[in-house]
Amino acid sequence: MSVTFYHPFVFILTFVSYAFFHASRKTFSNVKTTISDEWTPSFSNSTVNETLPNQTWNKHKLFDNGKDAELFLGVLDATFLTSYAVGLYISGMVGDRFDMRKILCFGMCSTAVIVFIFGCVLEWVEFYNKYVYVLLWIINGLLQSTGWPTVVAVMGYWFGKSSRGLVLGLWSACASVGNIIGSLMVSSVLDYGFDYAFLLTCSVLFGGGIVIFFGLVSTPSEVGLRYNREGKLVKSTIIVNETISSNDRSVETDEISAPLIEEEELNKEEEEIVIQIEPRALSLCQALLLPGVILYSLAYAFLKLVNYSFFFWLPYYLSNAHHMAESQSDAISIWYDVGGIIGGTIAGFISDLTGRRAVVVIPMLILSVPALFIYGNFTGGYTINAVLMAVTGFFVGGVANLISAAISADLGQQGPIKDNSKALATVTGIVDGTGSAGAAIGQILVPVIQKSQGWKSVFVLFMIAIALTALCVLPIFINEVKDIYSKYRYSWFTGLKIETFADRRNIEDDSTTNRHIE
């Protein structure tokens, strides 16, 4: 793969843009305790309540007790994820049909406005209404869904498959970095009020959207670049409505309804004329029928239930079960994301070396079960809590990063659609949309189970979800293991170094052809 001046800028801009998306989401999960206190009666400060009328302290009451407020917060999470899941299916198809730079910019700026209204304006005007909160969070989910399919598609277009596991494994840390940024932002201003936390993160998100509009290059073709059949980046010039003669033959662009491209390799002076037919965007059904899409989508639904439950409820869990101060629980919760960053990067690197993803995914899922069990039954100090949290994030968050980024890009550029530049966002939207649907169900189950059975039962739910994730990936894992076995078995018998099973088939085909020629 040829690396150009544009590659690092694309990496940084898409990374930062989605990190800002996640920072705005993390704000809500990190201020849940404060919001819950705001929405319930304040009877704790008896001295103040004796000197001031009860109405002054309880006029904003939405719920009679903290448990009801907690359930409503879970409803808001589920509402967001449901609309987010629906929006992902739509945004994926839109991203393959329109300018992704403009879509991403619109999603970032409009999301910032909605978050500003939810967290700041309604608080400043002292307007408290459950139905308005739900409506705003539905809109928020739809708008935020523009982010992931577009940024993954942009990265998939710029970075080839040979190093995609490592590059996208590292890049997929954008969500975890966004969580860390959000946690640090919230903890720095939460003492002034939760409205300041929303104000800070949505301002950063809006500013990021402006930078994306003026700075992002969505595809190599926008700057006269494309990948040839060997996977090398080459310069290209689109020639429209002209006739080009080559070997005494004329090709009319109007007759074939496709542009002619004059291609020049970056490090060579040779030029060649190729005809490139404009690809057609896949429909939702066509994308669903691609190999592996349904299995990985279902797997990600169960996995994202666990990953997003940590995302939404970890600070609250630390505050509620381990009796930490809210600012302290916000700060220590970043270690789950640190583990996810390391896990996703290492998993991507190993999957690049093996050339297969499922053989890395399944072992990590198996190891995540004891990690969840230990952490769910742990009672101890902050340091050990952070270490166990990071280990859990390494396995759970690492696999989630790999599936949502590198594997989604692989699925959107495989086999017959390898050269189709209008399929990647649609496939990514399906995988992440199905995952978000599973996560939405989880956000309803977590507060209900916690209220009736306690936090240990919640971790049992997580372990069951991980087992179901592994079950969905198992058929792909078995096929990859068979492929590896066939490759090395053939290499052992012949003494040849065969890179892939496909190479072995090609050699066999060539041998058969030569025999027929002789």
UniProtKB/TrEMBL annotation:
It is a multi-pass membrane protein. The keyword Chaperone does not apply. The keyword Transport applies. It comes from the Eukaryota. Residues 10-482 form the Major facilitator superfamily (MFS) profile domain. Its main location: membrane. The chain crosses the membrane at residues 5-23, 71-91, 103-125, 131-159, 166-190, 196-217, 288-314, 334-351, 358-376, 382-403, 423-446, 458-478. CDD domains: MFS_SLC37A3. One of its GO terms (cellular component) is endoplasmic reticulum membrane. Keywords: Membrane, Sugar transport, Transmembrane, Transmembrane helix, Transport. It is found in: Membrane. One of its GO terms (molecular function) is transmembrane transporter activity. Belongs to the major facilitator superfamily. Organophosphate:Pi antiporter (OPA) (TC 2.A.1.4) family. This is Sugar phosphate exchanger 3. It comes from Lottia gigantea (Giant owl limpet).
